[in-house]
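Notebook, student rotation project (T.W.).
Task set for the rotation: take a protein with a known small-molecule partner, predict the structure of the complex, and write up what can be learned from the model alone. Partner molecule chosen: pyridoxal-5'-phosphate. Sequence and SMILES entered below by T.W., checked by me.
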Amino acid sequence: MYKFEKNTIPLYIQLYEQIKEDIKNNLLAGSKLPSIRKMVDEYNLSKNTIQSAYNQLYAEGYIESKAKSGYFVSEDIYQKFEKDLNESFDKKSKNKNYKINFYPASLSKSSFPKKTWLKLYSKVLKSDIHYGIYQNKQGDEGLRQEIQKYLFSSRAVNCTKDQIIITSGFSDSMFIVGTILKTISNSLAIEYPGYAVARKVLELLAYDIKDISINSNGIDINQLEKTACKSIYLTPSHQFPTGVTIPIANRIKLIHWAKKNDAYIIEDDYDSELSYYNRPIPAMQGLENSDRVVYVGTFSKALSPALRVAYIVLPIKLLPIYYSTFDFSFSGVPIDLQKTLELFLKDGYWDRHLRKIRNLNRKKHEIMKNSLLHYLKDEIKILREGSGLNLLIKPLINIDLNKLEKLAQKRDVKIYFKEYFEIKKVLALGFGAFEEDEIENAIKTFREIWQEAKSFK
Ligand SMILES: Cc1ncc(COP(=O)(O)O)c(C=O)c1O
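Predicted structure of the complex:
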């Protein structure tokens, strides 16, 4: 029921505003609006007033007119409102604190070595650290030296500290690398499905992005060879999100492709520290004396995603472009944090911490896997396991995953999805954020939501 007031706003505008609100909040796409004659009778308005309101709605795309049938709510506009609603739902849910949050890339609060960090941090503050000057643009030399030693011994990465740049996370690294490589070529290949952050940064840099599909051996090299790309972004040790490892023969093929085409491989080695069934395989960067690989790593997975420390290892050939392009820019990581991390690595705490975090997350991984198999038995299939901070799960029964997400939300539980080969939506359940004794209960609650979602067909 529309209401009209006697004021300076013309009646047709009052009617137009009210129908518009109705379309946004109540009316379904494709539903028919009352005929002009019916509106005249119902509201005692003139035919002209109603026609003008409808004309305005039509001009703005809220309604469509069908010959001899009348006016209908436009399909397009309805879908846009749906999208807006979903987006605001997503935004709200991203910042919310959930009772149970299966975020795929978090560590638990207790796994951060706070005591040691405090000890080393105060040592740094008591040292003669100079806060009055701009520090090294590329990142502190001492920290770069320690990262070089660690990468050499654990990942067989071959470089000097001068090739290392300290950044404040993957997107920062990708922005620097993408900017450097753009001086060589405008087109860049990327894994599909792949890491959305990498794609976003490359889109912002206005790259012509070529998707290369993933198969059971990692990226399809034949597809890559058909492109004119001069660089490719890869997660070769543990493909994100499928978990596939590129076998050695294909790694060598890729390096040969890069050598032959004067191209570069961006190797994102984001979580090789967290491998539970086998030792992590060496990085591509160290293979075949490769000066064609740009290596990017992070401290987010094994130490803390909150510290925001990551790094790039640039091939020597690309250093001059880095110096000339980024001569304005300083590492975004505060000097005291860099120095604390340097001591953490230098004094042997990092090696100990890695052993601890690997064991801890291996246990959490087992608890989550066993709980899932116990509570959901043959209703699910675990698609990816054995490393990282989450398990990928495919339902084996008919279940509406959107409904599951909404029901979870109602219970203050957050679940996440990823793409897996040709499957557009599989569940990515993170275990890293939980304490060991919380996981089974989290899965029990998940099972209750699952049962509820199953009953909606
Ligand atoms: C594929 C991939 N690369 C890199 C990162 C590291 O991101 P950051 O260093 O910004 O924490 C992540 C984190 O989840 C990731 O999934």
